[in-house]
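Researcher: Hi, I'm a grad student and pretty new to this. My advisor asked me to get structures for two proteins we've been looking at. I'm not sure of the right format, so I'll just paste the first sequence and hope you can take it from there.
Model: That works fine. Here's the first sequence with its structure tokens right after it:
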Amino acid sequence: MKVIDMHCDTISELFALKQKGTPEALRSNGRHMDLLRMKESRYLVQNFALFVMLEKAEDPWEHVCSLYRHYREELEKNSDILAPVLRYSDIASNEAAGKLSSMLTVEEGGVCGGEIGKLCRLYDMGVRMLTLTWNFDNEIGHPNYSRLLNTQLRVAMEEWKHTGPDSPDRERKRERAQLAYSCYSHMPNLTEGLTERGREFVTKMEELGMIPDVSHLSDAGFYDVLETTKKPFVASHSNAREVCHSVRNMKDDMIRRLADRGGVMGLNFCADFLEEKLLGEKNPGSIAAVVRHAKHIVSVGGIEVLGLGSDFDGIETNEELPGAQSMGALWEALSRAGFSEDQLDKIFYKNVLRVYEDTIK
């Protein structure tokens, strides 16, 4: 077994802990991911995302640069077991040297402020994948989540939260919050996609050798990326909408189109993107739900379209997949569900490795 995981937020999580005065190390920590557990689980490549929340960052560009400096510090501290991927051949070289490979990504294209020059600087820093949007509009595109519906959901949730358990209005307010949540999570953005500057970004990314990542991007934006690009692209951490009807997941037509392009989507271990529960009902996450998504995605797009995108350290802990140490359990569950060893190798690393060979210079 080898593992390539297209998305985790560990660097951003460790940086936040450092800022709070409670630092933990990449080599060994109490989060979802650390290098020692990754090595034990036979990771080949881990994509480390620099995540910036636009609405909370005073200067998004400076924040991503601060995250980058922290990433470089961790690379230097752990150079005995971790090495960066700047070109495709680095993966094999790192493996031959007995080292894990680290691919740097950025989750939030808005850190560039629409400046192509900053996109090129990210490439020079070693970034080889860019999640075009997170959950906010930016200069290059629009997410699937609606800002208006998000505001309505927050109001409804606060009203329900602050209603006493014996209040006659509590059930009505719970139903209102449930409706607001359903609208927010079930209504994709079908009209707002890439901006004109966004199309320029995606074109430049292909020229540089940087992979566009459409996780979080609107449905309209997915088709814009499909139209604008020629090479494979990815949805680094998105599941199947037919199995769990969240707009963060991919509808079947998108899965087929991504497969036709030679791209890959990564199974996300976030419980709310695996299986829906009613508001207030615990959603611990399960391996069985991941298996359901895997089987559906393969039935729609074929075995070549599926990979891993755990979203570790960016999600609440999935109780049955609590961290990097869980990859063996996932392999066994998928094997019991009927996936062959060859198919599992494709899901766990070969499909993503193929995309990297086709895209990264």
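Researcher: Oh nice, that was easy. Here's the second one.
Model: And its structure:
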Amino acid sequence: MRQYLSAEEYISEVQSHIRWKRARKIATLELADHIEDRKEALMANGFDEDAAMSATIADMGNPRTIGMQLDEVYQPKVNFLLIELTAAFLILGTGISYLSGNILHFNQIVAILIGVCLTVIFYFWDYTVMLRHPFTIYFTHTFVTVVLLIFEARNGFETISYSYTFYILILFPISLTVIFTHVKNKYKKFGMFIFACYSLVPFFAAFLLSSLPAMVIILSTYIILVCFGLHKHCFSLSFTEIVILFCLSSVVVIGMWFMYTIFRLKSPFINTGDDFVRKLIFDTVHLSKLSGSSDFCIIYDKEQFLKENYPFVLILNKYGYFGVGFVIALFVGLLTIMFYTAAKQKTEIGKMIAGVTSFIISFQLFCSIICNFWYLGSMSVCIPFLFSGGVFTVVDLILIGLVLSVSRHEEIVREWIQYKERKN
């Protein structure tokens, strides 16, 4: 074995045999501490510093062997089940879209390609960057939202329907999660009020857009994270804070009424459709069979209407209850894997990021089901990966990429965060 003149030189040789670059520092932190402790012990027994270092390194063993052993321990995790299920949904969605209209739209193909590229990028991305730069992420997200909302409202708020601002708002729970992490660590007292102030910006943007799904998902995210904070004793709950939150809620309600009156906003509720729509859905559901409908067919223009607004009903008509059951079973598997990934994380930020992304996709699925089969109308929320608009496909694949990133860094994220905090 060659002679090493310093611990850094020896450790560098060990790290060269660890293939995952992000794990190299983490994997050798204890090794550096062990070398230092051993050297100090020898110096206490009469060795000079150079002799103690040489003896310590000689006792450590072959750096190649140690590096290969550490390489086996520290490897990025690949969540193959999540990848396989996502791929199955993309193939299934593309196939159903083609069979429904005998054509694959160019924007759908482009959206899948862009989404897959973004999924790969987020998979290799260090998601803990969000923990170190929460305000940069939140205010950048807010700036993009405000700019888009102003641009789309240039002809009046009442003309806005579901737009690019809506898709940006759907991703806001991620930004709120990293802000929540900062707030809970800094402000135990009045933390709920401070976090509410951050949540109001996207909530009001969703209200101006008259988007009930965006309003519900942002409010739900706030409630879920606050309950998590109370459970972990990160927030206090005094009478004063309850009064402040009540007053804030009152101001928000009055402000919403004022804005609704001044800007003549659309009603942010579900569009239940007319009698023709309800009859079409009723007939489609009740004449469908286990393997599809044989005695009730819908013409192309109605099929397109169902595809865009009631996709589960269209699946039921074409592929029967077996088809709907198969799709729901796939979703149960997908969401189980996503929530399981969140539950087994070793850090709170990992649990929250994976949990919130899983919640967003669950919310999409839940909205699709209740609106399709309970005749509540359309909320313009597509079934994830199936009959999705191009931008929705990209959004869903970004969420999958975030969960894959959380899963990939599972073994080193706690030590990585501690290392970054010490370094900064």
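Researcher: Is there anything I should tell my advisor about the second?
Model: You could mention this: The longest helix spans residues 311-343.
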